[in-house]
Each structure stands twice: as structure tokens, then as C-alpha cells.
Amino acid sequence: MELNLKNKVFIVTGGSKGIGEAISRAIAAEGGIPVIASRSIEATKNLIADLQKQGSESYAVLGDLQEEAQCKKVVQKTIKNYNRIDGIVNNAGVNDGAGLEKGPEAFRRSIQLNLFHYYDLVHYALPYLKKSKGAIVNISSKVALTGQGGTSGYAASKGAQLALTREWAAELLPHSIRVNAILPAEVMTPLYRKWLDSFDNPSEKEARIIANIPLEKRMTTSEEIAAMTVFLLSDKSAHTTGQFMVVDGGYVHLDRSLT
Ligand code: NAP
Hints:
This protein is of the alpha/beta class. It has one domain (9-187, 222-258): Rossmann fold (3-Layer(aba) Sandwich), CATH 3.40.50.720. The chain contains ten helices and seven strands. It has a seven-stranded parallel beta sheet, sandwiched between helices. Helix 1 (18-29) crosses helix 10 and helix 4 (104-114) packs across helix 7. NADP nicotinamide-adenine-dinucleotide phosphate is lined by residues 14, 16-20, 38-40, 43, 64-66, 91-95, 113, 139, 141-142, 184-187, 189-192.
């Protein structure tokens, strides 16, 4: 299937590790140009060099997206370099365990870490998205639907990202800008590894989770999340907006008796 992403420019936040890296690679594989907005300097350098070796163009704007000014800079630099933005993938996030016991400061920090940049980036990119009739993909989480325990800030942010997906899909109808969300559940990434390693017996925990994933008793791969993302960025999904795509091997929705 030809996705028509050639020479189109997509900002991917957290685009050099885990799910974001797979999305950047998938965009590049389709001939698009990923603009990687990340604070992971080494990972970003390595990814850009690797993509270059494969003959793919990419661009990076390094810095912490918690700063509103950084979100503005990402958009400004993208425009200066390419004079277009065809889409945004809001993906950067950290499951930081700011639960009820941690207190108001930790909760606020978590919202800052996980939510505000989703809005800020779209706000600053809006004029260019209107011009390109661009697409927005918000990477949320199953935690928005299921809860997890001990992570109020992350859960609130992920839920808010779903609400913003519907809200922006409605607001941006007149501009033909489509907005969709993807909800991963269990995907092995540096973030997920860190979370697993926080348990006393990580391999037992991992085995227990995998046993509960109905489809093929395995984790979703980052590439499977990326494949859904490039489809949602492309005009092949031209009449899909305001949707929540749960790419999780049936983990959240299928009957528990199946596992
Ligand atoms: P990851 O492996 O940690 O990769 C995320 C990348 O985003 C990292 O490079 C990280 O940098 C960067 N980042 C985070 N906050 C940032 C900020 N404020 N400014 C700039 N860069 C920032 O995470 P992942 O597992 O791929 O997760 C990606 C997204 O998927 C997140 O939104 C997460 O909530 C969601 N998700 C993942 C899973 C899963 O199973 N992995 C499940 C549900 C939802 P640092 O390394 O410096 O933090």
C-alpha cells in the first residue's frame, strides 16, 4: 500500500527511543521526514546517523518538551528547515509513579511531564497543520481506560490525551485536520524495561503479563504501534478521526476466560 508520505514532514516527540524510534523509522521507511523532538541526545544522534546510512532524511530538535519555549522552538526550526508540517505524533511520556501517596507536587510535575507538551506543540504547529490539512496522532495508554495503581499523574495525563483527541477532532473538522489516538498496553521499550525492573522479580512479573495477552501470548512490538501510526498519518485513513485505536493483542477488551 502506498501511503503517500514521501517528502512530508512529521514531528515525533520522544522520537529516538522505544515506540517513538519505531515511528520515526517507519515514517522514514515511507519516504517521509521525521523531525525528532527529544531530550535523549545520544539516542537521537545514533538514530539520525543510522537513518542517514539508509539514505533517509531526518532532523532533530533536542531539548526538554516540558518547557513551552522548547515546543515553540521545535515548530520554528521545522518550519525554517522545511517550510511545512504535515503531522504531529505526540508520544513523549514517562510513567513516573506519581500516585496518591506522593502528593500534590509530584502530581503536578507528572502532568507537566506527560500532558502540557501535547497541547503546546499542536498549538504552535496549528497554522501549518491548517495549511497542509495535517494529521495528529496522540500516543495515550491503556492506563487511561484500566488504571494501574500508584500513577495518578500519568493516568490523568493519558485520559486527558484521549479527551483532547476528541476535542481537537471536533475543533479541527473545518480544516480537515484529523486527530486520532493510539493506546498501547504492553510494549517492550526502555521505559517499559525500567518499569519492570522496579519489581522484586521482573521476569516473573513479565511472564505473568505476557500470559494475559490473548493474541499469541506476546507483547506488542513498537513496530506494530508504528504501523498503525503511519496509517493514521496517511491519506489512506482520510475519513478516520476522533478514534481510539487499542493496539494491544486484545489485552484490554477481550474476555478474560480466553487467557
Ligand atoms: P521510552 O522508551 O522512554 O521513550 C520515550 C522517549 O521520550 C525517550 O527518549 C524520552 O527521553 C523521551 N521523553 C520523555 N519525556 C520527554 C520530554 N519531556 N521532552 C523530551 N523528550 C522526552 O518510552 P516508550 O515506552 O516508547 O513510550 C512512548 C509513549 O508510549 C509514552 O507516551 C508512553 O506513555 C506510551 N505507552 C507506552 C507503553 C509501553 O508498553 N511501552 C504502554 C502504554 C503507553 P528520556 O529517556 O530522557 O526520558
